[in-house]
UniProtKB/TrEMBL annotation:
<dbReference type="InterPro" id="IPR050600">
    <property type="entry name" value="SETD3_SETD6_MTase"/>
</dbReference>
<dbReference type="InterPro" id="IPR001214">
    <property type="entry name" value="SET_dom"/>
</dbReference>
<protein>
    <recommendedName>
        <fullName>SET domain-containing protein</fullName>
    </recommendedName>
</protein>
<dbReference type="InterPro" id="IPR046341">
    <property type="entry name" value="SET_dom_sf"/>
</dbReference>
<feature type="domain" description="SET">
    <location>
        <begin position="62"/>
        <end position="280"/>
    </location>
</feature>
């Protein structure tokens, strides 16, 4: 629109201006609840201020400043009003931590041929070591990072017990086991083979987990000026929080002319408003596990995965063969649907079509209205038979009296045995990980409950 306004004649310019104003107004209306729900806090942030000054000294250009928010930690707000297409943040490529930087380090030269080690693992080890390097170029950056990232990978026993029976429990356990195995494959062997580079006091499990959480929660996929797509850490940009309606969507390529990574806005951000970055199209389970939060508002990527087995019997006279296949449907909360009535009732059309075919309830031109209603009744009752048990497994107990039994499970060499019941007397006083686990279960319950409610309401009308 900006280009059209510059090149249009007087007759059409007025129309284009009206259209542009309407587009900007609609962009501005997106995500207004994000800031109304965030309470700013007065807090000292010397490390973060030092990071901004360090960045400016090395060529960072920014229209943002740091703020702290209740329940969300630090974030970045606009120090001036920033329009659509304007650059809020610009980071020189020389400050980006990537594989290209790794290749210049002594860590790479020492272990590049060690047991088929990957560049991603070497970057983890470099970060773990560089964090304790007092002469590091990135000393200010590492000092500004949190002592604990508080992701799902750091969940304690009580939080895991609260998640038992959910898919997130399985996801976190598998991730923990993978990381523990990775650590045991590396240490103490690296300390033995390269004692001057990998000190035992630095190469602990806690420091390794910290480095893993750093890369999971702060890394970005960036196309560098060399043309290579790399997983990178981008100092200063890591302070930006995620939102389901972010200001910044496209930031994945270094500008070849300026040799910098630019963060342009896709919707306006007023002065004093928090500026949000998109971390990607992730469901809540992924954000909890690797980032340590659930986004505010309705995340369109939250879903309940539903695996359905289908079997087809074929008779060839004397013998019978059975062919099986599996299909997976991602079922979202029905409040996100634009249509709550026939023929979808707020439910995914592919799922309904699949069930209609599997249950022999396909519709054609000869299907009577009575048969259509009967077929829908069969499909809806089938869905209720699937989702009602799920809802029963996630009971909504009194907020002030939540109990969970601690299960027996193990993480690598760590064995956590069956322990007494955990009583969570008050969510507000619970630990950060238990709060997050309960928040995730609430989200799952809300999605499943919406599906059950939609099916029940639909049955009343068929």
């Amino acid at each position: 629109m900006n280009k059209l306004l510059l090149t249009s004649n007087a007759a059409s310019k007025e129309v284009f201006q009206m259209l542009q104003d309407e587009i900007v107004a609609r962009l501005r209306s997106v995500g207004k609840k994000d800031n109304s729900q965030m309470v700013s806090q007065t807090q000292y942030h010397d490390a973060e201020d030092s990071l901004l000054k360090w960045g400016e000294h090395h060529g960072v250009k920014s229209k943002l400043r740091i703020a702290f928010y209740q329940g969300a930690g630090r974030g970045m707000v606009a120090s001036e009003s920033i329009g659509v297409g304007d650059t809020a943040l610009e980071i020189p490529e020389s400050l980006i931590i990537s594989e290209e930087l790794l290749c210049q380090s002594e860590v790479f030269l020492a272990i590049k041929d060690f047991n088929n080690i990957t560049s991603e693992t070497m970057l983890l080890l470099w970060s773990m070591r560089e964090r304790h390097n007092l002469s590091s170029k990135f000393k200010t950056y590492f000092e500004a990072l949190p002592e604990n990232f508080n992701t799902g990978l750091s969940f304690g026993i009580d939080a895991l017990a609260a998640l038992e029976g959910t898919l997130l429990f399985d996801e976190i356990m598998q991730a923990k086991q993978h990381l523990r195995q990775q650590y045991e494959d590396l240490f103490p062997l690296l300390c033995t083979n390269f004692p001057e580079i990998f000190r035992k006091d630095v190469c602990t499990w806690d420091n390794f987990l910290w480095a893993c959480e750093l890369w999971y929660s702060n890394s970005m996929m960036v196309v560098l000026s060399s043309g290579k797509l790399s997983t990178c850490l981008v100092p200063v940009a890591g302070l930006l929080n995620h939102s389901v309606s972010p200001h910044i969507l496209n930031y994945g390529r270094v500008d070849e002319a300026t040799k910098s990574l630019k963060f342009p806005l896709s919707r306006p951000c007023d002065a004093g408003e928090q500026c949000f970055l998109s971390y990607g199209k992730h469901p809540g389970s992924h954000l909890v596990t690797f980032y340590g939060f659930l986004p505010r508002g309705d995340n369109p990527y939250d879903f309940i995965p539903l695996d359905l087995d289908t079997s087809a019997d074929e008779e060839d006279g004397a013998a019978q063969s059975v062919s099986t296949s599996q299909t997976t449907h991602m079922v979202r909360g029905t409040w996100l649907s634009r249509s709550g009535g026939f023929p979808t009732y707020g439910l995914p059309q592919p799922l309904l079509s699949h069930l209609r075919a599997a249950l022999g309830c396909d519709l054609d031109e000869s299907t009577t209205e009575a048969d259509i209603k009967e077929n829908d009744r069969v499909v809806l009752e089938t869905l209720l038979s699937i989702f009602n048990p799920m809802l029963e497994d996630l009971p909504e107990t009194d907020e002030s009296d939540r109990c969970y039994s601690r299960p027996h499970f193990c993480v690598g060499a760590i064995h956590l045995h069956h322990l007494p019941v955990v009583l969570i007397s008050n969510r507000e006083s619970a630990s950060w990980d238990v709060k997050l686990a309960l928040g995730y279960k609430d989200l799952q319950r809300r999605i499943i409950s919406s599906i059950v409610t939609s099916c029940t309401s639909a049955l009343e009308n068929v």
